[in-house]
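Q: How would the structure tokens look for this protein?
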Amino acid sequence: MPEPHPNSQPKAVCLLSGGLDSSTCLALARSQGYACFALSFDYGQRHRVELDAAARVARSLGAVRHVIAQIDLRPIGHSALTGDLAVPKGRSPQDMAHGIPVTYVPARNTIFLSFALAWAEVLEAPNIFIGVNALDYSGYPDCRPEYIEAFERMAALATKAGVEGGFRIRIHTPLIRLSKAEIVRLGHGLHLDFSLTHSCYDPDPQGRPCGQCDSCLLRRKGFDEAGIADR
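A: Here is the predicted structure in token form.
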């Protein structure tokens, strides 16, 4: 059966980091019939491995277009992902559940969603997908449902499309109340090639995951609990 033409499908801007969650989110949007425009960011993060992963995933999942926006959050700093702070290693789930870790990038999702909002308005795409998760997450305040709801209300006030009634942009967060194991099972059911994705905050120079940062440990926990091998 031939693929539907993108012009006949509802459009969606999908934030894509190349990690497990955002890749599963893109796979889900595609499975639901959206013409997906993938948006990634080169924001001065510690490594470019995740951008390579995002490009692989976008190609594999048939994104209509994949854009990598160039911004630099290093002058703002105050994060282990954009500065010289050490990435925490070997933390227990209990440790991760308390406080906001130094891997939090100040206002990152607000910045990313603002770019997605701008592109969605240009594309006349009333949908934005973001793979935030409020259960197995590392304490980031911009992954919570109340934050997403507030941003969606703001989007209706801050865009020409919203003010003139052309269309209202909806922010989809299909993973927000899923455990990491449930996300792994969802991606597996969508035939997502997990080997294309990358989750580590602090890979080695060859791009191999450290296995001990919060993101690596949460990923391992998810695959173990789902009973699925992580290739």
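The domain at 6-226 is CATH 3.40.50.620 (Rossmann fold).

The chain has a mean pLDDT of 93.

Upvote if useful.
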